[in-house]
Design brief:
alpha+beta; 3-stranded antiparallel sheet; 11 helices
């Protein structure tokens, strides 16, 4: 078993002896178990080279000691140790030799220092590598955190998008159902419109598909214009317009001052030759609002007004191909026959009652002494005028061509900073003050004008013509219109 001496592990070497052991040694009485502890002592420290060799005969131990020299300092030193065991009875002592070899102390220290340096270098390298690994781990942790953050954000976005897709899918499904229902309703409405058009054709020349020539529309317009002149003359011949009625007319016409009628004043109204133009403009304004723009305030007014606004908007569009707009006008034509029944006496009386009371006062004054038969005569005149306007409106709305009743000031290309300019292509001067020069403004629009786009065959919507010009009174002076409008606003009571 190896022995450790001074912390160094020693291995037993060959044990020299004077003579080989005999087997009889084994027969000696065994040592007692309670013998004294083994004493280990160092006999001699090798400060010189020591060699232990066996004698050639193998029976003698020979010890050779050489003198230490400078050349042998670096050689291996040998140390010899012995262990003595003493029996309890003190009768037996046995020596055992152990031999070990070790390097010199300087070489050993140098070797250890080199090993320490190598280990320190390895430790330093390991520290550097460990630092790099820690940095990489920290970077990976940060990347993992960023990825988790992005993943969470993307997950929320995906969730929101999924909800939106689900909502849009539901909305799309709902719209498909609604579209299906609307298609069914539209088909039913078209069938009803066709049936209504067939019934309406007995009283309307255009509802049954017959083409209405432009000459017939112009003729109806001239009839209305003639009746308006007759009624205006009747008003002026029978009653002088008092200041209250004049103020009422001015208030009514104010909306036309900035757009439709022009810049007439109360002084212009009081002039005998111009008063007739003023009353005519007032009557045309009533017909335009109540009939041609369907501002009558009756049950079906909203639907009729919507149809007419659509036609007016389409009339202002620049159309490159008639096929793009023709189906819409056909639909408007059929729809008008459905929502607008033929004018009945009750319907005409309702319009007269709601919108013509001021006209009655202009005819008969404010007194009640007027005979009832005279009032009835005036009602008949107004009733005939309203019926003519309704018939013309029905002819316009049931045609595949689009007709637009519009005042010159509603057309943006005619408006300037000083007012509405005179255009011979769209207007006709009714006063007898001579031919107007260029760049003159309008003083009063007596009648609207009638525009036409397309034809009765549902074609040629690319072009627009002036079917009937507007009767106007011009102002011979560039600043006259704006000055008179300012005077009108000052003279009109609140």
């Amino acid at each position: 078993m190896p022995l450790k001496i001074f912390g160094t592990e020693m291995f037993p070497s060959h044990i020299p002896s004077g003579s080989p052991r005999n087997e009889s040694i084994k027969a000696e009485p065994p040592l007692q178990q309670d013998r004294a502890p083994v004493a280990i002592s160092e006999l001699q420290e090798a400060t010189q080279n020591m060699e232990c060799d066996e004698a050639p005969c193998g029976n003698q131990d020979r010890l050779s000691v050489s003198t230490e020299t400078a050349s042998t300092q670096s050689r291996l030193h040998r140390r010899k140790f012995f262990v003595s065991e003493t029996c309890t009875d003190g009768a037996h002592t046995e020596f055992k030799w152990y031999q070990c070899e070790e390097l010199s102390l300087d070489n050993q220290i140098k070797s250890l220092n080199e090993e320490i340096a190598r280990l320190e270098q390895q430790n330093s390298d390991c520290g550097t590598a460990n630092h790099k690994l820690n940095e990489e781990i920290r970077s990976l942790y940060q990347q993992n955190y960023d990825i988790c953050s992005v993943n969470g954000y993307l997950g929320e976005e995906i969730r929101q998008l999924s909800l939106q897709v689900s909502e849009l899918s539901q909305e799309n499904h709902s719209m498909e159902l609604q579209n299906h229902q609307l298609r069914a309703q539209l088909q039913e409405a078209q069938q009803q419109a066709q049936r209504a058009a067939a019934c309406h054709g007995k009283s309307s020349p255009g509802a049954n598909g017959n083409k209405i020539p432009d000459s017939e529309i112009k003729s109806k317009w001239r009839q209305i214009k003639f009746n308006v002149k007759i009624l205006a003359g009747f008003i002026l011949d029978n009653n002088s317009i008092d200041s209250r009625q004049a103020r009422h007319c001015i208030e009514v016409m104010k909306g036309l001052m900035n757009g439709k009628t022009g810049n007439a004043t109360e002084d212009f109204f009081q002039e005998p030759c111009n008063g007739r133009f003023w009353v005519e403009a007032y009557l045309w304004k009533v017909l335009s609002d109540v009939v041609f723009e369907s501002k009558g305030g009756t049950v079906t007014t909203a639907a009729r007004s919507t149809f007419k606004k659509l036609r007016k908007q389409y009339a202002r569009m620049k159309i490159g191909d008639s096929s793009q707009i023709a189906p819409m006008y056909e639909w408007l034509q059929l729809g008008w026959a459905f929502i607008q029944p033929p004018p009945t006496p009750d319907y005409v009386n309702e319009l007269l009652r709601k919108h013509c009371e001021e006209i009655y006062k202009m005819i008969h004054g404010n007194g009640d002494s007027e005979r009832s038969d005279s009032r009835e005569d005036s009602r008949e005149v107004l009733r005939d005028l309203m019926k003519l306007a309704l018939e013309l409106d029905d002819m316009i709305m049931t045609s595949k061509a689009t007709f637009t009743v519009v005042w010159p000031a509603e057309m943006g290309e005619f408006n300037t900073g000083n007012g509405t300019e005179y255009r011979a292509s769209h207007m006709e001067v009714v006063q007898e003050d001579g031919e107007p020069s260029e760049n003159v403004t309008l003083r009063l629009c007596v009648t609207p004008l009638l525009l036409k786009r397309g034809n009765a065959n549902g074609r040629n919507y690319e072009t627009q013509i002036v079917l009937v010009k507007s009767d106007v009174v011009v102002a011979y002076g560039s600043s006259q219109g704006s000055t008179q409008l300012h005077q009108l606003q000052e003279s009109t009571p609140p």
